[in-house]
Design a protein that fits this description.
single chain; 483 residues; FAD/NAD(P)-binding domain; 5-stranded parallel sheet; 15 helices; 25 strands; 30% helix
Length: 483
């Protein structure tokens, strides 16, 4: 019997998973909230889409036009449903049936599914701002979660001002719409992603006044130089780095390390940003402040995995990422995860993981070539994390009145007061008292910062994983789709 594999996310991981599942003979449904495939990495202007011919764009056509593939753009997965009767306690039942390659031991209380099928997938099809979205339910034989990640931005005084953008948002506007977020733009934060963001802004005519990497040169060098002979495997990344460096040099854009944005100033919008030299732990070196006049600033401190659906499925987390085995299986039967939800490693690593996940999800076995490619890119992800860590002393940038939750305008002082209250302890009470994380973004922007400031975890189960209108929720009829 042909297996039906549902892939959530059409970025590098999702497309690779779909391709390998199709090669293994499965029926595949690919879902994405965007109207075009490719994710953030392969975003481009609509008129340029058909003209691009790299392998990635050829892959899109090969996968999404396959007769056994259904491509559902503008599709929001708002819930994953497990019948409670299917849940068993792994402490009693062990991990039988998951295969010899799966987890040898699990923490007590971990829930697995006794049923052979993964959760049902509740989908809304149609533009997010539309009023007549169609409700559908998919019942796959295997589910691949490849939802990617979004920017992590650390709060600082003034970050709520108009003109302060995440690095990813600035790049999306530049690559997808040809729009620059400002005329004079500062790019700052941590990680190599700052370089393509600066390049995208330069291409659409913005003046990039500087690119600032918060980590010191010593920290970055130490992270990348461990076992340097293994860097030969990632020679392609060196070519990208040289190209970005040449672009910055051609436009006379300075790249400075060990420097961070610590304040944004302005009345109606950002007019100035204050930067300062920081120590390896990101504490500010007094007297090193410098002010830039700008009309926009793009800040990104790495990425946060989009875990809402993985958590809703019941997947265990490990260090803030979805826990997977060597076949990309999660701790829930029939559910696989690939890409940034399992670790931040870039497009190549995501695609390598997706290839393994798709092949195994379709009932096949990942060959040695796929596994080796995945393992090599995993090493790159670990180097990336070591070279561009988040310094623990960033909280020293904050003041009592600094807004942490921009949706609800919750300040540092309010969070610390609530966290110190012994009567109303715990993350749930903290949310109810301060409303941090209860706004439109549901903690996607402030969640990690709140967790670091107050303790606790930034990820928790939401029965409704994505925004849905009350009228849509009240609609009684759902169409059950099968391959």
């Amino acid at each position: 019997m042909t297996r039906h594999v549902v892939v959530i996310g059409a970025g590098p991981a999702g497309l690779a998973a779909a391709e390998q599942a199709l090669r293994a003979g499965a029926e595949v449904t690919v879902l994405d909230q965007a109207d075009v495939p490719g994710g953030q990495y392969y975003r481009t202007l609509p008129e340029a889409y058909e003209d691009r011919t790299p392998a990635a764009f050829t892959q899109r056509r090969r996968v999404l036009e396959h007769p056994r593939c259904r491509w559902w753009p503008n599709s929001t997965v708002w819930a994953l449903e497990h019948p409670e009767a299917d849940r068993i306690d792994a402490g009693r039942a062990g991990v039988g049936g998951l295969g010899a390659d799966h987890f040898e031991a699990d923490s007590p209380g971990t829930n697995h599914l006794s049923a052979d099928r993964p959760p049902r997938v509740h989908v809304l099809r149609g533009p997010a701002d539309g009023s007549a979205r169609e409700r559908l339910v998919l019942s796959p034989d295997a589910l691949v979660i490849a939802t990617g990640a979004h920017d992590r931005t650390l709060p600082f005084p003034g970050w709520q001002l108009p003109g302060v953008f995440t690095a990813g948002a600035a790049q999306a506007l530049a690559k997808g719409e040809g729009v620059a977020v400002g005329r004079r733009v500062l790019v700052a934060g941590s990680g190599p992603f700052l370089l393509p963001v600066a390049e995208s802004l330069l291409r659409v005519g913005a003046e990039v006044v500087a690119v600032l990497e918060s980590n010191t040169a010593r920290t970055v060098r130490k992270g990348w130089s461990r076992r340097p002979w293994r860097l030969v495997r990632h020679a392609g990344k060196a070519g990208e780095l040289i190209r970005y460096a040449a672009t910055l040099a051609r436009h006379r854009v300075s790249y400075r390390m060990g420097r961070a944005v610590v304040e944004a100033k302005g009345d109606d919008r950002v007019r100035e940003v204050v930067t300062a030299r920081v120590n390896p732990d990101w504490s500010v070196v007094k007297g090193t402040e410098r002010t830039y006049r700008v009309d926009a600033v793009c800040v990104g401190h790495g990425f946060v995995p989009q875990l809402e659906l993985a958590v809703a499925a019941g997947c265990d987390l490990d260090g803030g990422f979805v826990r997977v085995d060597r076949d990309q299986r999660t701790t829930v039967r029939g559910v696989f995860a690939a890409g940034e939800v399992t670790g931040i490693g870039g497009a190549v690593a995501a695609a390598a993981e997706g290839a393994v996940a798709g092949r195994v999800a379709a009932g096949g076995a990942a060959d040695r070539k796929l596994r080796v490619a995945r393992d090599h890119t995993g090493e790159f992800a670990r180097r990336l994390a070591a070279a561009h860590p988040i310094g623990a002393a960033w909280v020293g940038w904050l003041r009592p009145g600094t807004i942490v939750c921009r949706c609800e305008e919750t300040t540092v002082a309010e969070l610390r007061e609530a966290a110190g209250d012994p009567v109303q302890a715990g993350p749930h009470a903290l949310k109810l008292r301060t409303r941090a994380g209860l706004g439109p973004c549901q903690g996607r922007m402030c969640g990690p910062a709140v967790a670091e400031l107050c303790g606790g975890t930034a990820s928790h189960h939401r029965p409704i994983a994505q925004p849905i209108r009350l009228g849509e929720l009240a609609e009684l009829e759902e169409s059950h789709e099968h391959p």
